[in-house]
Amino acid sequence: xxxxxxxxxxxxxxxxxxxxxxxxxxxxxxxxxxxxxxxxxxxxxxxxxxxxxxxxxxxxxxxxxxxxxxxxxxxxxxxxxxxxxxxxxxxxxxxxxxxxxxxxxxxxxxxxxxxxxxxxxxxxxxxxxxxxxxxxxxxxxxxxxxxxxxxxxxxxxxxxxxxxxxxxxxxxxxxxxxxxxxxxxxxxxxxxxxxxxxxxxxxxxxxxxxxxxxxxxxxxxxxxxxxxxxxxxxxxxxxxxxxxxxxxxxxxxxxxxxxxxxxxxxxxxxxxxxxxxxxxxxxxxxxxxxxxxxxxxxxxxxxxxxxxxxxxxxxxxxxxxxxxxxxxxxxxxxxxxxxxxxxxxxxxxxxxxxxxxxxxxxxxxxxxxxxxxxxxxxxxxxxxxxxxxxxxxxxxxxxxxxxxxxxxxxxxxxxxxxxxxx
Amino acid sequence: xxxxxxxxxxxxxxxxxxxxxxxxxxxxxxxxxxxxxxxxxxxxxxxxxxxxxxxxxxxxxxxxxxxxxxxxxxxxxxxxxxxxxxxxxxxxxxxxxxxxxxxxxxxxxxxxxxxxxxxxxxxxxxxxxxxxxxxxxxxxxxxxxxxxxxxxxxxxxxxxxxxxxxxxxxxxxxxxxxxxxxxxxxxxxxxxxxxxxxxxxxxxxxxxxxxxxxxxxxxxxxxxxxxxxxxxxxxxxxxxxxxxxxxxxxxxxxxxxxxxxxxxxxxxxxxxxxxxxxxxxxxxxxxxxxxxxxxxxxxxxxxxxxxxxxxxxxxxxxxxxxxxxxxxxxxxxxxxxxxxxxxxxxxxxxxxxxxxxxxxxxxxxxxxxxxxxxxxxxxxxxxxxxxxxxxxxxxxxxxxxxxxxxxxxxxxxxxxxxxxxxxxxxxxxxxxxxxxxxxxxxxxxxxxxxxxxxxxxxxxxxxxxxxxxxxxxxxxxxxxxxxxxxxxxxxxxxxxxxxxxxxxxxxxxxxxxxxxxxxxxxxxxxxxxxxxxxxxxxxxxxxxxxxxxxxxxxxxxxxxxx
Lengths: 422, 562
Description:
The complex is a heterodimer of chains A (about 425) and B (about 550).
Chain A: E1 11-13, H1 15-23, H2 26-34, E2 39-40, H3 41-47, H4 51-60, E3 64-67, E4 70-73, H5 81-91, H6 97-105, E5 109-111, H7 114-119, E6 124-125, H8 130-135, E7 142-143, H9 162-176, E8 180-181, E9 187-189, H10 190-193, E10 214-216, H11 225-237, H12 252-255, E11 258-260, H13 267-274, E12 280-288, E13 302-310, H14 316-329, E14 335-340, E15 346-356, E16 360-370, H15 372-375, E17 384-389, H16 391-398, H17 412-417
Parallel strand pairs in A: 6-7, 8-12
Antiparallel strand pairs in A: 1-5, 2-4, 3-4, 9-11, 12-13, 13-17, 14-15, 15-16, 16-17
Chain B: E1 3-7, H1 8-15, H2 21-26, E2 34-40, E3 43-48, H3 59-70, E4 81-90, E5 100-107, H4 113-130, E6 137-143, E7 151-156, H5 174-180, H6 182-187, E8 197-202, E9 207-210, E10 214-215, E11 229-235, H7 238-254, E12 258-265, E13 276-279, E14 285-290, H8 291-298, H9 304-313, E15 317-321, E16 328-333, H10 343-354, H11 374-388, E17 392-393, E18 399-400, H12 402-407, E19 418-419, E20 429-430, H13 435-444, E21 452-463, E22 471-482, H14 488-502, E23 507-510, E24 516-526, E25 529-537, H15 539-544, E26 551-557
Parallel strand pairs in B: 4-7, 4-12, 17-21
Antiparallel strand pairs in B: 1-3, 2-3, 5-11, 5-12, 6-11, 7-8, 8-9, 9-10, 12-13, 14-16, 15-16, 18-20, 21-22, 22-26, 23-24, 24-25, 25-26
Helix pairs in contact in B: 1-3, 4-7, 9-10
């Protein structure tokens, strides 16, 4: 074994020494800058890393003087022995004792503890250390074998919430099918939630489900007058839609009442009113709110996935085609069956039941062609197929849960143990 | 959707054919927009999907639809209406309480158990679903032989009269009924605030009922011995009342009853400019649809003749009209259909008769480009960074309570978006900041191994008068670390990593906030604007959440970063 660096034992660079080897000694960096001419201290501080060290050594070596806040180079060193020594140590070459002392004083090198490493020769060691590698003594030791079949200590990686992950997966799938995402406000006017969907103000069709009202704020603003007067006329006598209307006096005040969004379809008329691409395919995944008693099938809040397709000449056949595509592409159906269904804002309406490989027959999605009484007041002439997808049961299946409340699981242990949804 | 119980045998008898159960389940029930939910011997539970066709909520209505499709009984079901001598006088006093009633008489009915149970079920479903829990429509059926017409529909003071309510032995005043009778307790709120209550009373002084609460036991109890019935329907909107009455009487007519009109006399003109009206009106109504229009909706290429055939099966009467250029179909539809208000509604019946499952689904090939909303894309990016920092994502409800938002967080109560009719006071306001949701999560998971490092990305709802909805959803990120020892430095490293990875310059400015330890919290500033808070959670807050492990956390508005 050849002894390196000096008589006093092998050295290696400290972290600081390694740093200076790479970026240059601070004092040399300062010298280099001052070669261009005198400089204000403040400026030099900004330009040179470890300025205090640099200033201290240049002053000590008599290279630089300070006067009136200005630094000036008075003697330009040809070379720096310290800088050279750092390189030598890194290369494992010998360095003079005097220089080594300075390096030790400046904490730029660390002494390898020869004795310790030497003592290991011929022995079985447990840890491979930097010193073992550097001195080459690793060649003369053996490594204690481990029990490599034992799994490591359990650690918990950062993870997405599985429900969120599932919803993102559905999003991506819908985007692959050409759908654009829509969003809308959590607190909504009854106008967009009901009236714009041709649900009359005092009729069972409005009560197709229980809904919340807002205590504060109570009333919102209605959209522009043109839409309001057309919706009003359509509710009252059918306007020019070819229908009879509901035959009652429409109340703008009631329509401006605020409520937490009760269903995702509240978003579609907003988009139709402000203009959409034709042909266009749109979707939304949003939180909805209904005052259901909370149990294994009803959460405090729930997500609805839905949207619409708009294009010239769309027919009921395309509606069935859309549902079929969802059934196979998103729900993984093996068999499908269509049922006539009812939604207050579509006609004709259809529900698709699917045979899921694990869950058996289940209702999967619903769709209908928006009523002309809905689309025409919003300025839409083309047929619009509205659709909604019951993704929560699929999410529950993906997450292996039976209770819908676990979709929003607040149990950290359960979350840590969940596998990710791919 | 309404769920109804029917007897399978009874249904077969009404259809006029012994249907195999399989066929009913797989095919026939679809004609009535239904699904067989459960089979228990002869008892079937049917889900009727249409909440706007009350006539389908009984065996009679379901049978009519199936009959048209599978037997020779197609076209309009015929309902003859005779004239009874019964007169109902409506008092002016009703105007502000329960202004309208429409009535009918059904005679010669053989009431067996099936008829009775279907009648009661239909009456209930119509009142509850169509009549908005009796608010809009209340229906009463009485044994005509116990009623002495003319009948007065008037109002009485709550303690001025006594009668025995249905299923009770003792005579009670209206006031006592609202207090003691189960129906009085259930529906009493509909009469709240009125000085007088509506009442049907006959010429012998016998009370028929106090709508919309309860019938009297004497006249309002229909049994299998009853033959002739008096039916009244009361509420606020003639259209609904007529529709409800038609649904009931046509079902009874299908059971063999002879329907007769009742003369209802109002103190002023109420309906079609008349003050005296005869109800029910069972005349079929007319509608015209264009054949081309129907095909453009269905995508089928049906001839007008084929359409007529399909509509006849759906119990319409049809006639082809118009020249070579444009064929029209004039339809007459039965009086129990109150849902038809646009040619579109007739088109659906063509498809139902054709069979939804016989139509070939066509996937429309539209060249559209899909995209995820920017807010979601950005949220997803931040979630990925947070996961990389070893944080577990959590999800919470946006509804919460003021205790969680303010009191437990050691801050003063603020005005927030609040729900008027919450199911539970635990969820009655929308959160206006995110940290309480994360604190609640930590508080729920104290038994779980530490350290706990979590994050949530979610919306909060802020009040904002400039918005159409007077509120604004803001997407936020909250992170929290909890362990036996946590420091400001640890959480600020997380924040720093999030910001650096997003390439966003920010500054921290020392701030005082009661949720955090004084001297250990800061505002997060981006371009000079505060977008959030960071700090070590105050021990008082820890106590409020019953947390024993220290928490350091931050919350930032991520919409400001986009």
